[in-house]
Amino acid sequence: MDWTSINNVAQILGMILVPVIGWVFHTVIKHGSKLIMLEEKINSSILGRLDSLENKVDGIETKIDNKMDKLEEVLNDTRVELAAGMSRDITTVLEAINKQ
Predict the structure, then answer these.
(1) Using CA atoms, how far apart are residues 64 and 32, in angstroms rounded to an integer?
(2) Measuring CA to CA, which of 23, 37, 63, 86 is 20 to 30 A from 70?
(3) Rounded to whole angstroms, how far apart are CA atoms 70 and 78?
(4) For residues 95 and 98, what is the distance between their CA atoms, to the nearest angstrom?
(5) Sign for the pseudo-dihedral over CA of 78, 80, 83, 86
(6) Intra-chain end-to-end CA distance of the chain, in Å
(7) What is the pLDDT tens value at each position of the chain, 100 positions in all?
């Protein structure tokens, strides 16, 4: 094979490969931009769902805090009532003992 044959084969391959490579690059760039748009849509959807979940969790945390506050309040009231009742009972027992 001489240089002219190699040149002819290279020109034929160039005539075929250059448009194919150009089409491949064009297609890749087009799909890349579509992928970017799809990624943006998915990210916005995920962010919306995360915001919704965060709002729900915040609401649940608030409800739990309110219930804990009420429970602490009831426990404190019960402690005070028990202490007062025990004090009355002890006083009654001591008065009974002192009378004897």
Answers:
(1) 47
(2) 86
(3) 12
(4) 5
(5) negative
(6) 135
(7) 788 999 998 899 889 999 999 999 999 999 988 999 999 999 999 999 999 999 999 999 999 999 999 999 999 999 999 999 999 989 988 888 888 7
Q: How far apart are alpha carbons 54 and 15 in whole angstroms?
A: 58
> Cα 87 from chain centroid?
53
Tally the C-alpha atoms within 13 A of residue 6's C-alpha that lie toward its C-beta: 3
- Residue 51 is which amino acid? D
